[in-house]
Design brief:
Blueprint lengths: L1 H36 L5 E7 L2 E7 L16 E2 L4 H14 L29 H5 L10 H7 L10 H9 L14 H15 L3 H10 L20 E2 L5 E2 L14 E2 L1 H12 L4 H9 L4 E3 L2 E3 L4 E5 L2 E9 L4 E7 L4 E7 L4 H16 L1
Antiparallel strand pairs: 1-2, 1-12, 3-6, 4-5, 7-8, 8-9, 9-10, 10-11, 11-12
Helix pairs in contact: 1-10, 2-6, 2-9, 8-9
Length: 352
């Protein structure tokens, strides 16, 4: 009988091993096929399932050079930064510093004086789930003014004037993507901890997870991907300034895998905070918006995902907590369609 159990255990192990190998091979083949169809776009992809990691990358750091992209290559993760911002907010919730349904009035810096018409109206969760109704930065105007650095001219005075002059909320309680909301969340964090947003990321995310290839404002490193806009022109990395909590971070698939593993781990403070962010606050059909994270219900599968787009790069973080897998996609062109097609194809053909 012992021999029978040994054989069964061995077969189960071999089946799991074969599945893992097959999944890796299929993912690599899929990424390769996307690169073959888009040879000018470099891509770095990471995948994890139940703690087992896999990385693949195709293309070069720039279209003019021949140095290959790998799992350590630095990309702009852009709006995936919002997932980290809301994780920090959720950590503050766990520490008793605020509640997600608290109004923002008492947490804002003194530069903000809310109009009486909107006082005690907007909650922390309204900001994080894009339902605040506050006015937002007009990126179209900023891009027309400076396509290379549209956020460089956005400063504290501009944001303060925008908020302080607001006397009514547009579409309050409905989803309307808001960069300004994340500026305010970042400043609320700074008020709560009496520390800069960048320092909080370093102390609470980068350092504990040993993310040594992740940066905020100051970085000058080799093995960084050159970005290209949608038309194929060179695009400089964003200067985020005050807009930092909405898209500041630069990282690699290997480093962001550390964050993804921490999200999926049931024991970490980051995972405990993530579960707060994964509660839907705005729902439409089978989709919902949590705190900085999109939630899609597909049968028994619940997917949590966040995309990112700078002017020169696109990115994606997606995970299934129940199935214990996660995917990272970084490409060195502003090309949301390509990035989305990559994720959709991975999910439909391999991960579903």
């Amino acid at each position: 009988m012992k021999t029978v159990f040994t054989i069964i255990s061995l077969l189960l192990f071999m089946n799991a091993f074969t599945f893992a190998q097959t999944t890796k091979q299929r993912l690599d083949s899929l990424v390769n096929s996307f690169h073959q169809a888009n040879p000018e776009v470099s891509m770095s992809v990471g995948f994890v399932q139940e703690g087992e990691e896999f990385f693949t990358a195709y293309g070069n750091l720039s279209r003019e050079g021949n140095e290959a992209v790998d799992k350590h290559t630095l990309f702009e993760i852009a709006s995936i930064t919002k997932v980290i911002t809301t994780n920090l907010i959720a950590q503050a919730v766990l520490e008793g510093k605020l509640k997600v349904d608290d109004y923002i009035d008492d947490y804002l810096p003194s530069a903000y004086q809310l109009n009486k018409n909107i006082r005690n109206k907007i909650s922390i969760s309204d900001l994080a789930s894009h339902q605040s109704g506050l006015p937002d930065i007009d990126f179209k105007v900023l891009i027309e003014k400076d396509a290379q650095q549209p956020t460089a001219s956005v400063d504290q005075q501009l944001i303060a004037n925008m908020i302080n002059d607001c006397d009514s909320l547009k579409d309050y309680g409905n989803y309307r993507y808001s960069t300004v909301s994340y500026v305010l969340l970042g400043q609320i964090l700074e008020e709560l901890y009496n520390s800069s947003y960048e320092q909080l990321i370093k102390e609470r995310i980068f350092d504990p997870l040993k993310m040594t290839r992740s940066f905020t404002k100051d970085y000058d490193v080799e093995n960084a991907a050159i970005g290209y806009n949608g038309e194929g022109g060179l695009q400089a990395p964003f200067i985020w300034n005050i807009v930092a909590p909405a898209g500041l971070i630069k990282s690699s698939t290997s480093d962001m895998m550390e964050f993804l593993n921490a999200l999926l781990d049931e024991t970490t403070a980051i995972a405990n905070a993530a579960r707060i962010t994964e509660v839907g606050h705005f729902k439409a059909g089978n989709e919902a918006i949590g705190l900085g994270i999109n939630i899609i219900q597909d049968g028994d599968n619940t997917l949590y995902l966040k995309s990112g787009d700078s002017m020169g790069q696109s990115s994606m973080l997606c995970y299934n907590r129940k199935a214990k897998w996660g995917v990272l996609i970084f490409i060195n062109q502003n090309n949301s369609k390509l990035r989305n097609d990559m994720l959709n194809t991975m999910y439909e053909s391999i991960l579903r």
